[in-house]
Each structure stands twice: as structure tokens, then as C-alpha cells.
């Protein structure tokens, strides 16, 4: 019996046991299983009833909430660093949307830098997320090392053991870009010009400096 649906299956006893083929247990329902047998003399016996929760739907690991980025490839730059200090790498207060996981479930994050060094973080859900509702998994502050192909792998499993994996390749650039004018130097105020040929050598005439 699954929900309100009752189904009966038959099998022949062989060597003291019976195997029931093609038994259908409806996903996302509570089912009860009970077997009965009748011997050659017409005597009947029944097994103890077993209750089973059926869950064949894996959880999902969705988009990043913080930083607000999504996709298999992302870029993290200086403005994403919460302490604006490139000397200690990219620090972000990481949060991830999930579905299909119970309260207290653990989501693991493995961060692998370009040299193959791995750091592992984890987050626990503080509320239930059904297969049709979302919850936010908060990892707190995590360190993402600089690199062009930093691997971020999220993984989790629901109460039934259904696994979920989300992989992201991140380009991480924690240093703020810098632009400086190096010429003319402070001792040379330059001169007025209308074309490069008036400047001499390899100098270039700019309008508006």
C-alpha cells in the first residue's frame, strides 16, 4: 500500500524464499509492505508489516546567493573580497541555495587551487528544504585562493542517500587593477600639438591631457 493505492503481487516459493518482480513503490509516498503465504494444506501465514518512505528524488544544489553569481564558470574580483585585502586571498561570506534536504543536513565544499591544494568547508541547514522549496546554506567566511581555474565542488546527500554535486570553476583575482600615467614626467609639462609628427621621436599627441 502506497498512500491510498493498494497493489498485490504474486510469486512462487522456491528454496524457502520468494522474489517479487516489478514491484512499484510510488515516489515521495509512505508505503507499507506485507507478505502472505499459503501452504499445500491451505494454512496461511503473514509477515510483519514494514513501513517504507520512498524518495527517489535527489536534492539540488542551486545558485550562489552570496556572492550573487551563477553558472559553471564564475569570476571573483577585488570588489567581491569582504575585507579588501589581497594579501590573504579572496574572502567571501559564501551562501548557497538548496532543495530536498532536511534541517541539519551537511553540505560540503571542497576548494582546490591551481596547484592542486584542497581546503574543505561545510555548512548545516538551519531549516527544512523540501523538493519544492529552497533554503540557504551558509558557510560563513571562506578563503578562495587566487587562480585562473580554482575548483569549487559542493556535495550533499538527503536522508535516503540520494547524492547531489555542483561544480564551479572560478577565476579569482583578488588584486585591484592599477593604472598610472608615467609620461610626461613631473619635470616636463609637455607642449601643445595637433599631430604626432609635431612631438618628435616616439611621442604621441593626446587630446585632453
Structure write-up:
The termini are far apart. 14% of the residues are buried. This protein is rod-shaped. The chain is an all-beta fold and 209 residues long. Helices cover 0% and strands 43% of the residues. The strands form 4 sheets. Strands 6-12-11-8-9 form a 5-stranded mixed β-sheet, with no helix packed on it. The protein has no helices and 12 strands.
- Strand count, sense and closure of the main sheet? 5 strands, mixed
Helical fraction: under 10%
Structural class: mainly beta
Q: Spell out the helices and strands N to C.
A: EEEEEEEEEEEE
Rg computed from alpha carbons, rounded to a whole number of angstroms: 32 Å
Q: What integer is the average pLDDT? A: 88
**How many helices does DSSP assign?**
0
Q: End-to-end span in angstroms?
A: 83 Å
What's the shape?
A: rod-shaped
Q: Which helices and strands, and how do they pair?
A:
Blueprint: E1 29-33, E2 36-38, E3 44-46, E4 50-54, E5 60-66, E6 73-76, E7 90-101, E8 106-112, E9 118-124, E10 129-144, E11 147-157, E12 163-172
Parallel strand pairs: 6-12
Antiparallel strand pairs: 1-4, 2-3, 5-7, 7-10, 8-9, 8-11, 11-12
Keywords for this entry:
five-stranded mixed sheet, three-stranded antiparallel sheet, 0% helix
